[in-house]
Amino acid sequence: MPCRPQRSRRFWHSLIQSNEEGMQMVTEMGKTFRDVQVLWLGPVIPVLRLVDPAFVAPLLHAPALVAPKDMTFLGFLKPWLGDGLFLSSGDKWSHHRRLLTPAFHFDILKPYVKIFNKSVNIMHDKWKRLSSEGSARLEMFENISLMTLDSLQRCLFGFDSNCQDSPSEYIAAILELSSLIVKRSQKLFLFSDFLYYLTANGQRFHKACDLVHDFTDAVIRERRRILSSQSVDEFLKSKAKSKTLDFIDVLLLAKDEHGKELSDEDIRAEADTFMFGGHDTTASGLSWVLYNLARHPEYQERCRQEVRELLRDREPQEIEWDDLAQLPFLTMCIKESLRLHPPVIDLLRRCTQDIVLPDGRVIPKGNICIISVFGIHHNPSVWPDPEVYDPFRFDPENPQKRSPLAFIPFSAGPRNCIGQTFAMTEMKVVLALTLLRFRILPDNKEPRRKPELILRAEGGLWLRVEPLSSQ
Ligand code: HEM
C-alpha cells in the first residue's frame, strides 16, 4: 500500500517556516503524528517527514544508492565543495569514503587535541580581555565558529592564520560562502544558476569560491613539491618529529588497493568539504551546550567539578587525549544538548526505488523524504518529556532501552558523519576548558531558534561569561 497522506489527519499546506514559530509548529505536530508526517511542496509534491527511529531505519540503512541525498538545495554547494564526500554519490563516494576513513583514525586525531587546546586558549584570552569589567555579553556562534575554523585550518593544512585575532581573507570567504548559500535557498527564483550568477551575491559567491580554492590549491602544490623532493619514508619521519600529520598529508598519501592515489582536484574537494562540514556544525553544538548549561547551573557546576578534579595539580591545565574518557558527566551534557538542539536538524533523501515502512506502507520511488533528526529527538514516544534538558538520559551507569536510531545527531548508516570523533573530541576539550575558566550565564532574552544549514538562533545566541577568579 503506498504511503498516501490521509488528508483529514495529515495535511499541511506549506513547508515549515525557518524560525521559532516553525520549530514550535513541528514540535506540536510531533505530539500527534509520531511516525510519518506529510508536508506539501505546492499543491502536488508530497514530502514525507519521518520522525520515528523504526521508520527512518529502512532509509538510513539502505545502500547509499537506494536513498541518495536530494540535491535541490545541496546542489548550491557544488561549485565550492565539488565532488567531496558530502556531495558525491555512487562509486566515487564509496571509493573515497574507503580511502578517507583512515584519516579519522585515533592515531591521526590524537595530536589534534593539542591544536584544540591552543585554539580555545586564544578564544579564552579574548574573552578575558572583553570581560575585564567582571563579565561580558558575547555572541557564541561568531566567537566559536572562528575558533573551530582556526582549529580546522591548523589540523587540515598545518596553517596558522591567526584568524581569531586579526581578519583572515580565507576564513572570511568561508563564512561568506555559508551565508550566501542560506540567502540563495530562501529565494525560489535564484534556484537557476544562470540567474543567480547574474546577481551581486552570485558574483560574490563566485569570487569567494575562487579565493578558497586558490588557498587549498596552493597548499596542495607546496606539499606535492615537498613530497617529490623526498621519499615517503623521509617525509613521514620529518612529520613524526612534530607528531602531527595534517589531514592534507593523509589525503596526499592515501592509496587504494590498486595503488591509485587521489587527484589534486579530489584532494581539494575533500579538504574544502572538511572545512565546510566541520566548522559550523561543531560551533552550533558547542554554542547550544553552553546555552543549556547556562540555563542549568547545577549541571554546569557538576561538569566544572569533574574537570577540576581531573586537572587537579596539573600545570599547564591542558586536556589530553587520555582525559577524554574521564569526563563522563560532561559527555552526558554534550549528548543531551545534541539531542535537544541537534546542529543538523534534517537529512534530505530521494528514494530511487519503493521503500517499505515497518507498518507495510510504501514510500513510492521518486519521493523526497526528510529524515527529521529534530523530530526523532523530540518524539514523545521515544523521549519522555522531550523538551526537558536532562543529561541523565545518557547515563552510561543506567542504560536505557532505546533504538540506536533514537539519537542520530551525526546521522547513521553508510552516510553517517565521518568527522564525529573529531567533533566530539573538540567539543569535550573546548567545553571542559571553558567551564574551568568561566561561569556561563543566560542572557536576558530567550533565543529564538533559526534552522539554516545548521541550527542557529535569530540575531545570534547571546550569553554572558564571567571569568572565574582562580584562573
Ligand atoms: C557536532 C559536529 C558535527 C555534526 C552534528 C555533524 C553532523 C553530520 C551529519 C548529520 C551528516 C550527514 C549529512 C547527510 O546525510 O545529509 C554529516 C556528514 C558529514 N560530516 Fe559531519 N558533523 C559534525 C562535524 C563534522 C566534522 C568535524 C567533520 C570533518 C572534519 C565532518 C565532516 C562530514 C563529512 C565529510 C560528511 C559527509 C560524509 C559522507 O557522506 O560520507 N563533520 N555530518
Number of helical segments? 18
Range of strand content: 5-15%
Indicate the mean pLDDT: 91
The whole-angstrom Rg is 23 Å
Strand order of the largest sheet: 1-2-7-4
Number of domains: 1
Bound molecules: protoporphyrin IX containing FE
Global structural class: alpha+beta
Shape: globular
The CATH superfamily is identified as Cytochrome P450
Please tell me the CATH architecture by its name.
Orthogonal Bundle
Helix content: 40-55%
Unreliably modeled segments: 5-13
Distance between the termini: 64 Å
Describe the largest sheet.
4 strands, mixed
Subcellular location: Endoplasmic reticulum membrane; Microsome membrane
Cofactor: heme
Family: Belongs to the cytochrome P450 family.
Protein name: Cytochrome P450 4F5 isoform X2
Please name the defining characteristics of this protein.
alpha+beta, Cytochrome p450, four-stranded mixed β-sheet, three-stranded antiparallel β-sheet, 11 strands, binds protoporphyrin IX containing FE, Cyt_P450, microsome, Cyt_P450_CS, oxidoreductase
Describe it.
One of its GO terms (molecular function) is monooxygenase activity. Belongs to the cytochrome P450 family. Heme binds at residue 417. The protein has 471 residues and is α+β, with helices and mostly antiparallel strands. The chain has one domain: Cytochrome P450 (Cytochrome p450, Orthogonal Bundle). Helix content is 49%, strand content 10%. The chain has helices at residues 20-32, 53-60, 71-74, 78-81, 90-100, 106-109, 112-130, 140-157, 169-185, 193-196, 200-229, 232-242, 247-253, 264-295, 297-311, 328-340, 373-377, 420-437, and strands at residues 36-41, 45-50, 136-139, 346-350, 355-356, 362-363, 368-372, 438-442, 449-451, 455-457, 462-467. A four-stranded mixed β-sheet has the order 1-2-7-4. Strands 3-11-8 form a three-stranded antiparallel β-sheet. Strand 5 (355-356) and strand 6 form a beta hairpin. Helix 11 crosses helix 14 (264-295). Mean pLDDT is 91; it is low at 5-13. Bound molecules: protoporphyrin IX containing FE. Residues 69, 85-86, 97, 273-274, 277-278, 281-282, 285, 343-344, 347, 409-411, 415, 417-419, 422-423 line the site of protoporphyrin IX containing FE.
